[in-house]
Amino acid sequence: MIAVIATATGLGLGAASLGLGLGATEAFLFGVGVSVALVPEGILPTVTLSLARGAQLMAGHQALVRRLDAVETLGATTFICTDKTGTLTQNRMNVVEVITPSGRATVHGSGYEPRAEISGDDDAQRAAGTAALHALRCVTGRVHEVDGTWTASGDPMEAALHALALRTGVDTGDPGDRCAYTAERRRSSALTDGVVSVLGAPESVLAVCSATPERVSADLARLADAGLRVLAVAVGHWDRAADPAMEQDLTLVGLLALQDPPRDDVADALSTCRRAGIRVAMITGDHPRTGAAIGRQIGLLGPDGVVVDGSDLPPDDEALAAVVDRPDGVVVARAAPADKLRIARALQGRGHVVAMTGDGVNDAPALREADVGVAMGASGSDVAREAADMVLLDDHFATIVTAIELGRATFLNVRRFLTYHLSDNVAELTPFAAWALTGGELPLAIGVLQVLALDIGTDMLPALALGAEPARREVMAGPARRRIVDRAVVLRAFLVLGATEAVLALVAFTLVLRAGGWSWGDVPSGALLATASGTAFAAISLGQMANAFACRSALHPVWRMNPLGNRLLLAAVAAEVVLLLVFLGVPWMRDLLGGGWPSTFGWALAALAVPGVLLADGASKALVRRRSWQPDPAPAEPVRPAAGQAG
User: Fold this and answer.
1) Which pTM value belongs to this model?
2) Contacts of 315 by beta carbon, 8 Å cutoff, 6+ apart
3) Residues 69, 83, 265, 268: which is the catalytic one?
4) Ordered alpha helix ranges (H), 283-394
5) What digits encode the pLDDT tens for the residues 563-577?
């Protein structure tokens, strides 16, 4: 798009210059110069390297980005739909209570250790063992001792059931023939010697029981309100081959309450989301009371937060978005994978950039639909990881927030070096415009090859260094910017930084000509024109060096920033100085480019570009702060002190 605009502008202005009286050769040269000046040749590699560096930093924080463009999308995220288990919680399941018809048994154990203290009367403890045995038959997860530590193999919830069976001393035995869990049934079952064992969500299991004990509802409410995940276990009889049809006329043998503590850093991460204007919804298969308890415990649900059952979600997408899109958080409980897909579409229709987490095979459609699909690397399926844009290697919710922070920082860096490039384009284009508009009365200050030397030679390294600007604390303060090029970028690049560079370069060029005896409309000697052209080239280059430091922040003036905050930029500007001296000082190089070594007077004029750009930048930032009623900012410090860190 930029190339098309540059070419069209060059052709249009070249044709217009013919009407101003320029010859065909001069008009062609003017058109080429305009096109070359407008094309930011270094923007493609700069953007690519900035995104790649952002992806590298995310990988260092346990977030593996599978597509580079997801780095930018992460920075624009406005809504996170997250799972509960393993993402907001530690995914270290532990059965802490068993409710049976014979009474309640409380389990005091640590992790997946097979030894624990179980309190309760003898009948309740025996009944707890029976419930553990039938639950274990329905799952495949197990615990194993590795180097003296008991760890989960398979699903952590299923491993917790195996640990309970070991703690109660029951013989795990042969599991028999299993009917695996499905999202539609929300239960699994096994057939062993004619005995049917069923495990699943309490509502699902109780629905196929022949009778429901009196206190089940009260027990379920109490356990769910404590933030515990509850599973129901029932038994029955079947004299045919294993089939889901055997899950009927069952007898409830127990409720298993599992504890999964929240992650330590999730509350801080959610607080950061609120400051950043990012809304969060918990989408879980747990009971609504359990989801609500965890949501309030970690700070996801505010005073006006809502809890909605998946079965109660509105069928209309607009109404669904209105239910989910709440500033105080929402918990969608008993949600199916299809609900995730509908929620992602509904929120996108409301204008949100949605990040969706998932770990199962059935989550793949929702992960593909979301703007950023986030799969679990530690516990997720291969299908989910393949469908996702980003994989969390540690499954932490806080890692998503860190990735968004780095994405925002990368997005801002793209704006920084785009502002830098556009400013340079204005300074490069203005000499051609001045030459054409004066009908050649003012000689051409710089040539096409000098423009290329500025774009590809002196400007490339500072632009790359701006792509590695460290993130600052304000990056997560307020909503994310959604557009890279907006009114603020255009005004700053064209009317402040670029215009200042252009004016100073043309003034320096003209004064050097005048000092050499040139008068308006005269044709200067070749030596004088080369000296003046070298002065203009040096002024633009030095102005761009100052511009590089000015572009480090859109709010803070240079003198209120840490000069060592981006050491890569210091090295890049030092290299730019060396290249400037090479371009102007090496005889064959300056002959090739068309400029000459500036006089002492010329160097003094060119050097004025540095304070000129910095003062113009500082004045414009002060005006912006005054108009927005912002106080004079404190010195901007990076969030992370490492030199050269992207952000």
Assistant:
1) 0.81
2) none
3) 83
4) 288-298, 317-324, 337-349, 364-369, 382-387
5) 888 899 999 999 999
